[in-house]
Amino acid sequence: MLPIPIEKTFTYAVTDEEASFLKKGMRVAVSFGKSKMYTGLVFNIHETAPTLYEAKEIHQILDEVPLVNDLQLKHWEWIASYYMCSLGDVFRASLPSAFLLESETIIYKNDTFKEESILEDDEYLIFEALQHQSQLTIHQVAKILGKKKVMPLVNELIKKTAIYIKEQIYEQYKPKLVKYVRLHAAYNSDTSLNMLLQELSRAKKQREAVLTFFQLSTTKKPIKAKDLELKAAVSPTILKSLVDKNILEFYEIQTDRINFEGDTNALKKLNEFQEIAVSEIKQNFKEKDVILLHGITSSGKTEVYTKLIQEVLDAEKQVLFLLPEIALTTQIITRLQVYFGEQISVFHSKYSMNERVEVWNNVLENKTKARIILGARSSVFLPFSNLGLIVVDEEHETSYKQFEPSPRYNARDAAIVLAKLHKAKILLGSATPSLESYFNAQQKKYGFVALNRRFGNVQLPKIELIDVKEKQRKKEMKGHFSDQLLKLIQEALDLKEQVILFQNRRGYSPVVECKTCGVSPQCPNCDVSLTFHKFKHELRCHYCSYQRAMPNSCSACGSNTLDTKGFGTEQIELELKDLFPDFKIGRMDLDTTRGKFGYQKIIGAFEAQEIDILVGTQMLSKGLDFENVSLVGILNADTMLNFPDFRAHERAYQMMVQVSGRSGRSKKQGNVAIQTYNPYHKILQQVATTNYLEMYKEQLQERWQYKYPPYYRLIKITLKHRDYNKVDTGVNWLFKALYSSFGELVLGPTAPAVSRIRNQYIKNIVIKIPPKQSLADTKNKVIKIRNTFEAVKEFRPIRFIMDVDAY
């Protein structure tokens, strides 16, 4: 299996000895194509020679034990077939990139070459560089020439026999080694020690270092060189001179980059409602493998999870705890560490490549420090061998779905299959379950447990809808805040309580418009207007990251009457600083959480009550737990409702209820204020009464009427290319071919709301699959049509993307 998007596997030749050593799931280095080296994964060992090509030899074996186990391979095959992608895509997505060794082209000088006069200027530059260095990599050549495309030039030099090239494989993962110190074997007896101290009587610092070493060695633990330097207050050169004198020795121990230390406490005592929930879950697990836990916000779902996790750990099995957002992992780690300490490992994309390799190895070897894996969606790919329970927290979250690149899987659904393979149990938890999961629970496909009391019997927050249209008519708006919201914020601040304000747009304002001629600056690569970021005084595209300085005048008519329309988190933050100058305002969005510890810093400061008002985007809506928040404000509810997507209303309900749930979690009832132009909208009314069932029934009725999930399945096909006419011709041909197979169930072709991203034009077709129609047959037909499509020469350059369950 190769990490490339080609459907099939490839056969290579091995010797008898290699065949007896190799096992399924080991990595081998193989050459593919003319000169590329890839990391392949052994998928099968057999004696059938390929018919269409000559089997090449493998280059080398990279592992001593399999890196991927059988159950994982089965899971990968399911993902590849269900989500209609190649095994190579799943392989590349699953393994931390350090395991996929890449080869690098190394350039050497040909010593027999003497005709320097035939070389062009650029070629001579490379040749000259090789006089000073024995070899160059392609990256170095690109640096010397200041160009990106250097292969044509290198090929020219090979033709002229001035150079030759070789491929070299390099290992990317470097284990972390910590330097320790010990006493040289010659000084084991007391007499030799006395002599040693006399010898060092003149070298004060060295003597100090040796005495401190004896002090530290009483604990019988290995002594780190760093600790000895700090304790004895000496520089590394002093230690080095002691090593040169053969008094001390250095040695290294390999350690993991991340360790959770600290004492563990007993689990919290559950209240009666949580106890009932736990016993119901256990009862349900006897008959059903999947259970949906519908617990309202702040009902203490995490405590219920910990109780179940503890029982699985007692049975010496592994636990996977899936979370939708890295921001949430930060907070839950600290909560679970209190109980489980060192048994937790974390796996998500903000961790470095080397840290992820260590987690992978610990799970593979079933070490105690990887009993509980806390992670974002990619952690379903880890090499579990003994899984007992999977918890999917906030199971309704869209973040569980991967959209780009392939495999476009949904981690919740992939986890259900993973649990089945391991004969493990899976618990889906949410205060606002997705319609599909709730539907499955109603159909008795999943078990169902409800938890509808908040922890400590605190009441659900009081939600009020504020009519912005009315307030504007009465001139009661101050910037983007109504007088009512400002009054609530002031009351909360006077009581030393904290406030969260939610606005699902980052930046200062999404549109900049000229008042004279109405033109607004557009992104040159995408079909969107540029967002103004005041902090850096620039315009930025949120799709392709194009940026440019904010102009002083309109590029179309030259007048300097530029006006901003709409508002994002940055504008709210600045307005708040004017309105509440004595309080600390924080902001949490993609711009402020860039680094590895970005989330931790902001969440930590808010928990420590260093920030009074926190403004943020949807990151704030995911299960975070802050004790002192008494007010949540949603500044513009309408942007969520008026969205061209069949799930817009369900999503808006989920997001608003989740954000509201951050309020009044510990002591008294909290407040929620929702500003809207349309307070009588049925979804807003349902949010105001937190009536999930009413929303569920109404949405289900619409889904049945318009043939959408959970009744019908969806496959979405997207075509992308730089040339609009190509995409248009391609999509019309494809539509006709699909229509002849599926008839009315094909929707399209349509252009999405943003129809060009990164200079690629986009067209979509959606295929609906009725409840009785076989999913496998439908997929086979679609694949046949795709193969025909790709066989047409003019359609070959078009990118063809298939997304199963694209919601």
Description:
By secondary structure, the protein is α/β, with parallel strands linked by helices. The chain has 26 helices and 34 strands. The strands form nine sheets. It has a seven-stranded parallel β-sheet with strand order 12-13-11-14-15-10-16, sandwiched between helices. A six-stranded parallel β-sheet has the order 17-29-28-20-27-26, with helices on both faces. The protein is globular, with a radius of gyration of 31 Å.
Largest sheet composition: 7 strands, parallel
**Amount of helix:** 25-40%
User: What is the C-alpha radius of gyration, as a whole number of Å?
Assistant: 31 Å
The tally of strands reads 34
What is the global morphology? globular
Tally of discrete structural domains = 6
- Please report which band the strand proportion falls in: under 5%, 5-15%, 15-25%, 25-35%, 35-45% or over 45%: 15-25%
CATH architecture of the largest domain: 3-Layer(aba) Sandwich
Strand order of the largest sheet: 12-13-11-14-15-10-16
Oligomer status: single chain
Count of helices? 26
What's the overall average pLDDT, rounded? 89
Q: What is the CATH C level class of the largest domain, in words?
A: Alpha Beta
Structural class, by secondary structure, is: alpha/beta
Distance between the terminal alpha carbons, to the nearest Å?
A: 29 Å
| Uncertain runs | none
